[in-house]
Amino acid sequence: MALAKRIIPCLDVDRGRVVKGVNFVGIRDAGDPVEIARRYNEEGADEITFLDITASHEERDTTVQTVEQIAREVFIPLTVGGGIRALQDIRTMLNAGADKVSINTAAIHDPDLVSAAAARFGSQCIVVAIDVKRVSEPESPPRYELFTHGGRKSTGIEAVSWAKKMAALGAGELLLTSMDRDGTRDGFELTITREITDSVDIPVIASGGVGTLQHLADGVTQGGADAVLAASIFHFGEYTVREAKQFMFSEGIPMRL
Amino acid sequence: MTQRVAVIDYGMGNLHSVASALEHAGALEVIVTHDHAVISKADRVVFPGVGGIRDCMDAIRGLGCDQLLEQAITVERKPVLAICVGMQSLMTTSEENGGVACLNQVPGEVTFFGSPHLASDGARLKVPHMGWNQVVQKRAHPLWAGIESGTHFYFVHSYHVVPNDPDLVAGTFDYGLSGCAALARDNVFATQFHPEKSHQAGLTLLKNFLSWDGTC
Predict the structure, then answer these.
(1) B126, burial (CB in 10 Å: exposed 0-12, middle 13-18, buried 19+)
(2) Stretch B44-64: mean pLDDT, rounded?
(3) Chain A residues with beta carbon closer than 8 angstroms to that of B21
(4) Integer Cα distance of B68 and B45 in angstroms
(5) Smallest CA–CA separation between A46 and chain B, in Å?
(6) B111: number of CA atoms within 13 Å, CB side?
(7) pLDDT digits (tens, 9 = 90+) for A40-51
(8) pTM of the model
(9) Known active-site residue A131
(10) Which of A52, A73, A105, A178 would give a disulfide with A82, using CB separation of 3.0 to 4.6 Å?
(11) What phi, psi does A222 have (nearest 5°)?
């Protein structure tokens, strides 16, 4: 009897359509986030993360409608991230049916948003996304810093102290993405994952770099993550969520099968 | 049996998930409201809750939801399902927010997991208790129909209830301690987990609630 580790498929959505390619057999519309969320729900996903990468603020209404549609038929937790800048954005997404929101860049510009959001809506729905890159030389002690703009812009903020600060401000969970690994399919950046999971008392989701089922298991067994997030290995139909859960279970990880 | 369900809305967050899940489970009519007249006409009542207990209790009392719950539970004796902070609100007091007096419908306390919160083997456990954990059924109840003991449900909480009467515990979870996952007393069933977020098992429990006559 133990709390299960979670598998979280992630949908990157631009103007109401899933991007980064989705290629399921038997799916009618590969870009429809509602249909894809339904599919993952049926496969036994533990949660779904919906990342809005829509550039313009005006087109965000589409996102709200999509979140509403997903929440009406998918009865597992739904996290929405991307473009969350103010308490009103959080209120809008929670009202649309999100269970949690993920705050990224706005937390860097205004850390008080995290504490205000936790006080207003409860820590349980406030996820802080941390995008990191290794900045130290290969031979020197590892140092990771926060990056914004898809990993292009450095902030100079050290990752572990930032994670502790976010937890202290009231974040209920951290979504840690290695921008060095994102899209590489080389596996999670386990060093920083382990360092952060050991440094905070709140759950940590590992993200960035999954290419195999072993990578998912490693995120938990070596990285110490409470949940693992992946997009492409599920989108392209290489593995179903159910296969991933069964593999992790066979590695001795407590899972909800 | 008619299935008109009132979901009590005291302004503390998104209740669409609860309402959609109840509709999905077969409710003919789901009304999200704090209107006393509407709630008194409903066949059954769902009392959800998210967020901090102090704000919740202020909102509950501010809208007179304490009185309408009292009415539904002890006078009209309707089937009532309390979820998460809704369950915690039924207790006597909560440690959260420096100590908050609750509704005292079910004598007992709401206590913090602790920081650090340790497993029996000394491992550090994350708080909040967030994710899917197994619920061991401690007694037979109509709301468990079709759900095996040990089934996973979705939890997200940092405080947990300890009823004075241990016989009220209908299900437990294991997370560094044996916690109360569900309690049952007469026409009240309360869950620390979120049935509306617990996929098929949660929908089954909600379906059972819709056909429950309030006895056990």
Answers:
(1) buried
(2) 91
(3) 75
(4) 10
(5) 8
(6) 13
(7) 999 999 999 999
(8) 0.94
(9) yes
(10) A52
(11) -100, -40
